[in-house]
Amino acid sequence: MYLCNFITIADLLVTPINEVAKRCKISAQDAKAIYDVLLKECKPPALPTLITLNLPLDEVLSTGDAYLDHALGGGIRTGMVWEIVGESAAGKSQLALQLSLFVQNPPELGGIHGAACYLTTSSKLPTSRLSQMLQSNENLSKDSCDLAHVHTIRVNTTPMLTNVLMNLLPNFIQQQQTTSHPVKLLVIDALAELFRSTEKMSKTTLFDRSKELNQLALDLHALATRHNIAVVVLNEVIDRFERGRLSSKAGELVYSDQSRFFGTSSSVPGENTKEASLGLVWANAVNARIMMSRTGRRRYLDENEIHQKRTRMQSSDGALASSSAPSTSSTGQSDEQSTLIRRLSIVFSSVSPPSSMDYIVTHKGVVVLPDDPSQDCTAILECRFANDVDGSETQIKNAVAPAEVPHTLTTQSQPLENPEEDEYDRLLEASEDDILYDAYDAFEQQLTQAT
């Protein structure tokens, strides 16, 4: 072949068969046979297809509540970055602790036989609360679930968090891979704590914060994808104000119009007065956003809900405490059954549609309640973001203001303030502060609108 001026295989293949036969002084049939042999040997490997491609399948862990699992598309999926956002004492940490236990359950109980890594930013892991959930929730396997499978470390700064995510955590996940409970859940409680600053706001500080958030999001998605784990990030809220419109072209969407669809929810009146902190940069980094709100509403539970959902603090001998003997009004409705409820909304998700539901926080954890049949929720869902052009809110038909709910109940007695009933509210409020994050997010919104 060298004598025929063919140095590489490509030189031979790009030359017509007749020319090859002429140069090598062979027949065209022999040249064709050489072509066929070379093409067979040089055949590229077959590209993988969706059928032949062997990728790890996403696993789904139960939240411990059937209603919430259904709303989330089956539960919390691995390979995704989930965000739980809410105000102080809304129950964010309660749900995160609940997930840290239910991930340990066997598959027949909705778990994935995994362990949890719980990163805290401003407080220690509440092991006493974890122990209480473990002992009181009958849906947790006593043989599989244990506090030893909840690993924790405290990160006080963003560089420390980056070091944990890039160096410590990947090595730890690899070490635990061969154990009975490999790491399947990562919780960060709470991310916004790391971005508090007393520095004067400027474009430079905002750029630095956005850069840190982008890098953090890349690290979290890399962990979730590479190790097939679920990442749950807890976030705070800020007060949402109508700051007015800047001069813009007709038909142009400004930040205040767009943020209604990814930063807040409006399933009940007053819920949209808060929105997620950390701004647009972080909103684009998460796969799903769950918003938990304190509505100030109270609700009477029916008999089925009482037996299945109602919190009953029991004494050590198994008998109900003395406060569990409720007084009954003239209508036969128990005053103690009036329960302080909160609202959970799935703002957006890549695996499930937006939805909203009531829930309570009990000694077992977060428990979702079926929708109140006395209210027409269809109109609420259809008018979720029904705002006027000038930003003023439109009243939703059939919606009841939180302050008016106790007065519209079908009973003449007012709900009683039960110290035992609101025990978890006081504990949650005592463990969290109410520092808001208006400054950075308001500044980011102004820059977004200006551009």
From TrEMBL:
GO cellular component, one term: replication fork
Protein name listed in UniProt: Rad51B protein
Biological process according to GO: double-strand break repair via synthesis-dependent strand annealing; meiosis I cell cycle process; resolution of mitotic recombination intermediates; t-circle formation; telomere maintenance via recombination
PROSITE patterns recorded: RECA_2
Keywords from the named record: ATP-binding, DNA damage, DNA repair, Nucleotide-binding, Nucleus
Low complexity bias (residue ranges): 321-331
Cross-referenced CDD domains: XRCC3
Keyword DNA damage: yes
Membrane-crossing residue ranges in chain numbering: none
Species this protein is from: Coprinopsis cinerea (strain Okayama-7 / 130 / ATCC MYA-4618 / FGSC 9003) (Inky cap fungus)
Gene Ontology molecular function terms on file: ATP binding; ATP-dependent DNA damage sensor activity; four-way junction DNA binding
Location in or out of the cell: Nucleus
Location of the RecA family profile domain: 57-237
Keyword ATP-binding listed: yes
Region annotation (Disordered) ranges: 309-337
